[in-house]
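To the wet lab folks,

You asked to see what we're planning to order before we commit. Fair enough. Below is the target structure as tokens, and below that is the sequence we designed to fit it. If anything looks off to you, flag it before the synthesis order goes out.
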């Protein structure tokens, strides 16, 4: 698995399986994942339990969607040799950690997550006054913390969820991170770094704890990161000792902000199935052509001879994503002078979208014909993910002194 030379940083992200993916998903999420898998240790999961929070009345379709989503991911370039691709419900440790975290998470924290009220407003037709819906941000936290993720790629609207995850990790570490003889064990761990490094570590710790020096904290963390001969337990002990907390059992993840998808829908709004304005990744070329040909344009261009304004036309937003400077200039001049008609203007967009989708669709067709291979990838990924999740759960149980029933 390829990772950055300096940091074996771990990225975790998931997506709810609610049907075939479209260009909005591709430009907003998948292209970013394809890049990340080359630089980080990535865990990408199909969040089938999360789909139940809003679709609990119709769970039957979810398993079909799981495979379809995996096919779309693989076709878009997510590779099982570069990332761990798996199904959330095949790693029961997600649920187990969620249960344990639910014991320590104040209700008020969940009620103030902005998406809780938003979604209830948006999805009025569904009964979302359920325990599962209130708790789904905490299940998300468990999804992240069970892999001790360093980074979580999210859009602006999900930052509050990462903040909640950090608070939950902090509370857990505060409650359970003080092992017996913690200071003594941390001092012993420091001596393993060698005389010079240990002195430097202790000086930095003093500067941070006595003067609150943020710089000393950063240098201290970097010093610990560079230590090759420390066990994971000793390293985490020293991180906690440096920061004045206990041992860090669940590290706090960082939000890796993804650029908002610039991919508009066919009507100029955000591309979304609920607006019925999408182009699916596996949309047939003739259907792509038909959808773009019938896109609304600037209302001022009632006739071919009427000049228009690209800024008022949804097609221009597609040119912004797909066209080079020369084509954009041709559109600007042609539209404003009525030198080109709307169908002419749409032609380069049709060609560009079809060209982008062609290789994705070729790969999707291969996986479609070999669904057994897709199931194998998900099974193998789930087994690999489960090994990591089990280790975290063992750490959590040990910290809670709750190991008597371990399997």
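Sequence we intend to order:
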């Amino acid at each position: 698995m390829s990772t950055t030379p300096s940091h074996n940083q771990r990225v975790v992200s998931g997506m709810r399986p609610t049907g075939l993916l479209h260009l909005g998903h591709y430009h907003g999420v998948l292209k970013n994942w394809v890049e990340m898998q080359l630089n980080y240790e990535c865990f990408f999961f199909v969040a089938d339990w999360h789909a139940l929070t809003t679709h609990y009345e119709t769970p039957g379709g979810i398993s079909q969607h799981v495979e379809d989503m995996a096919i779309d991911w693989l076709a878009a370039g997510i590779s099982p040799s570069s990332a761990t691709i798996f199904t959330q419900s095949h790693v029961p440790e997600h649920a187990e950690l969620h249960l344990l975290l639910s014991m320590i998470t104040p209700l008020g924290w969940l009620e103030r997550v902005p998406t809780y009220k938003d979604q209830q407003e948006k999805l009025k037709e569904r009964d979302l006054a359920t325990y599962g819906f209130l708790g789904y941000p905490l299940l998300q936290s468990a999804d992240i913390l069970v892999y001790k993720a360093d980074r979580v790629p999210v859009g602006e609207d999900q930052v509050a969820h990462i903040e909640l995850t950090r608070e939950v990790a902090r509370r857990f570490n505060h409650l359970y991170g003080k092992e017996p003889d913690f200071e003594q064990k941390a001092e012993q761990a420091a001596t393993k770094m060698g005389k010079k490094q240990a002195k430097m570590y202790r000086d930095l710790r003093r500067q941070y704890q006595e003067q609150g020096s943020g710089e000393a904290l950063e240098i201290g963390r970097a010093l610990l990161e560079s230590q090759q001969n420390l066990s994971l337990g000793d390293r985490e002990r020293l991180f906690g000792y440096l920061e004045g907390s206990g041992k860090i059992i669940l590290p706090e993840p960082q939000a890796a902000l993804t650029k908002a998808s610039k991919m508009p829908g066919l009507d100029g709004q955000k591309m979304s199935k609920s607006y019925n304005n999408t182009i699916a990744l596996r949309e047939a070329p003739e259907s792509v052509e038909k959808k773009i040909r019938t896109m609304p344009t600037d209302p001022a261009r009632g006739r071919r001879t009427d000049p228009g304004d690209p800024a008022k036309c949804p097609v221009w937003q597609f040119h912004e994503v797909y066209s080079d400077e020369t084509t954009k200039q041709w559109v600007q001049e042609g539209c404003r002078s009525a030198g080109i008609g709307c169908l002419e203007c749409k032609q380069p967009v049709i060609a560009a979208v079809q060209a982008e989708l062609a290789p994705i669709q070729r790969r999707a067709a291969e996986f479609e014909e070999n669904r057994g291979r897709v199931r194998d990838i998900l099974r193998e990924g789930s087994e690999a993910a489960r090994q990591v999740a089990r280790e975290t759960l063992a750490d959590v149980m040990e910290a809670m002194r709750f190991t008597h029933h371990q399997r």
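Structural context that might help your review: The CA atoms of residues 310 and 316 lie 6 Å apart. The first strand starts at residue 10 and ends at 15.

Thanks,
Computational group
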